[in-house]
TrEMBL record:
It is a peripheral membrane protein. InterPro entries: Beta-sandwich_Sec23_24, Sec23, Sec23/24_trunk_dom, vWFA_dom_sf, Znf_Sec23_Sec24, Znf_Sec23_Sec24_sf. It comes from the Eukaryota. The lineage of its organism: Eukaryota, Viridiplantae, Streptophyta, Embryophyta, Tracheophyta. Residues 402-507 form the Sec23/Sec24 beta-sandwich domain. Its main location: membrane. It comes from Solanum stoloniferum. PANTHER family: PROTEIN TRANSPORT PROTEIN SEC23 (PTHR11141), PROTEIN TRANSPORT PROTEIN SEC23 C (PTHR11141:SF2). The keyword Zinc applies. GO terms for molecular function: metal ion binding. This is Protein transport protein SEC23. Keywords: Cytoplasm, Cytoplasmic vesicle, Endoplasmic reticulum, ER-Golgi transport, Membrane, Metal-binding, Protein transport, Transport, Zinc. Component of the coat protein complex II (COPII) which promotes the formation of transport vesicles from the endoplasmic reticulum (ER). The coat has two main functions, the physical deformation of the endoplasmic reticulum membrane into vesicles and the selection of cargo molecules. GO terms for cellular component: endoplasmic reticulum membrane; ER to Golgi transport vesicle membrane.
Length: 518
């Protein structure tokens, strides 16, 4: 067990087998599959961050690592341990030698990070879009306002803030208009498209809207002024945001005694995802939804407004007798695909004694790596402490990172079956993909919109070797390799690449399996 713990401490990887059966037939006899549990952003105080771009193999695109074969002579070449391609070092590496190696070749740095100067220059600010349910009693509104006001005061000055409130209608607040409160209202009973958001919120009020292509950000003709009306740095909008939150009241539309409140959760989340897709596509942003009950209005509704009709139970879901369930799940799957494409995260803070529809919404949280907090009230310590923890800085912070892409390279005799965890497939198919799919499979690259320093993924592999184990015993190199590449936006706003390269070995025959594994 000590060996497993030492390896995990070095690379944040734990494998059930540290040696593998030498053929596909023998691997099939293993009860536990060939797999690895990996925590991509686990903190390593001694891991250096290199201030330059990684050196990649020109054939398989794997990164230079301690297992590469290096010729330090005048030719200055390195051989990729995955595809055996010979690569020349660039001029910046010409001074390397056996006594003057770059950090990525040090044996102890099998996990290392890169932060190239070009990435440093493209610093992006974190974005938080608050989506607040106002169909709750005044007491709950008070608790929520108190918590949010405390959080707003602790936000970094450079982070961008937006605010949406919803009940019967969706209200998008224009924080950049400080003279009087100004909102854009969308009807909660209808699905809202991205074009409608662009038109009704005046993004092209003074200029011609492009007739073709996807409209997203400054590069597609949107002015910075039009976008900064809704997403402003915390230092600029703190007074306006505090004023709006202090005056926040319960949804004013009357609710008959035998009816539930008209709560358009689905429409509000749809408008929020459209807004972020228009203003900050491809940069780390989080929709933080504060829900106080079930959605009863518009797309994504999970129950009727008539109070005599009960909300679906676990038994109804098991029997497939929840009439609105599949339609709501399909709607939230569409939102999750949009958020994954944009690189954004959905967090849900559900504080109510009744259900809020998490069974339907969870697909969007899971695919984007969002946080889910459940409590019985916005005044409960579980909610208040969890919200503070999200924005906490220092040694006890969550290390929230965003907009990540995860890739796997491995030796030719290993194939990737899939990944289990909060991610979405990027459908990057190739020879390393196994025909057997487990979790998010049939790809070697995944989108991880939101991840923190404890986010962990289970990677499932398949042994593709067909020769007998005896051939392994006779081979000169019984080693095989994995490389995990995690490209992500650091909490500081900088883009980084973490590279973890592992070496394991094949087992030569059933006789050694017993000796080596136990």
């Amino acid at each position: 067990m000590t060996e497993f713990l030492e390896l995990e401490t070095q690379d944040a990887v734990r494998m059930p087998w540290n040696v593998l059966p030498g053929s596909k037939s023998e691997a099939a006899q293993c009860v536990i599959p060939v797999s690895a549990i990996y925590t991509p952003l686990k903190p390593f105080p001694n891991t250096p961050t290199l201030p330059y771009a990684p050196l990649r193999c020109r054939n398989c695109r794997s990164v230079l690592n301690p297992f590469s074969i290096v010729d330090f002579s005048s030719t200055k070449i390195w051989i990729c341990c995955f595809c055996l391609q010979r690569n020349h070092f660039p001029p910046s590496y010409q001074s390397i030698s056996e006594t003057n190696m770059p950090a990525e070749l040090f044996p102890q740095y099998t996990t290392i990070e890169y932060e190239s100067p070009s990435e440093k220059a493209s610093l992006t600010n974190p974005v938080f879009l608050f989506v607040i349910d106002t169909c709750v009693i005044e007491e709950e509104i008070g608790y929520l306002k108190s918590s949010l006001l405390q959080v707003v005061g602790t936000l970094p000055e450079n982070c961008l803030i937006g605010l949406i409130t919803f009940g019967t209608y969706v209200h998008v607040h224009e924080l950049g208009f400080g003279q009087i409160p100004k909102v854009y209202v969308f009807k909660g009973s209808k699905e809202v498209s991205k074009d409608q958001v662009l038109e009704q919120m005046g993004f092209f009020a003074n200029k011609l809207k492009p007739t073709t292509g996807v409209i997203a950000g400054v590069r597609d003709g949107l002015s910075q002024e039009s976008m900064s009306r809704f997403l402003l740095p915390a230092s600029e909008c703190e007074f306006t945001l505090n004023s709006i939150l202090e005056e926040l009241q319960r949804d004013p539309w009357p609710v008959p005694a035998d009816y539930r409140a008209a709560r358009c959760t689905g429409t509000a989340l749809s408008v929020a995802s459209h807004l972020l897709g228009i203003c900050v596509p491809g940069s780390g942003a989080r929709i933080m939804a504060f829900l106080g009950g079930p959605s009863t209005e518009g797309p994504g509704a999970i129950v009727s407004k008539i109070l005599s009709e009960p909300i679906r139970s676990h038994k109804d879901l098991d029997k497939d007798s929840a009439p609105l369930y599949h339609k709501a799940v399909k709607f939230y799957e569409g939102i999750s695909k949009q958020l994954v494409h944009q690189g954004h995260v959905l967090d849900v803070f559900a504080c109510a004694l009744e259900q809020v529809g998490l069974a339907e919404i969870k697909v969007a949280c899971e695919k984007t790596g969002g946080l889910v907090v459940l409590a019985e009230s916005f005044g409960h310590s579980v909610f208040k402490d969890s919200l503070k923890q999200v924005f906490q800085s220092g040694g006890n912070d969550l290390g929230l990172s965003s907009n990540g892409i995860f890739e796997i390279n491995c030796s030719k005799d290993i194939k990737v079956q899939g990944v289990i965890g909060p991610c979405a497939s990027l459908e990057k198919k190739g020879p390393l993909c196994s025909e057997v799919v487990v979790g998010q499979g049939n790809t070697t690259a995944w989108k991880m919109c939101g991840l923190d320093k404890t986010s962990t993924f289970c990677l499932i592999f398949e042994v593709a070797k067909k020769e007998s184990p005896d051939a392994i015993a006779q081979s000169a190199n019984p080693q095989f390799y994995f490389q995990f590449l995690t490209y992500y936006q650091h909490p500081s706003g900088q883009m980084r690449l973490r590279v973890t390269t592992l070496s394991r070995r094949w087992v030569a025959g059933p006789g050694s399996v017993q000796v080596d594994l136990y």
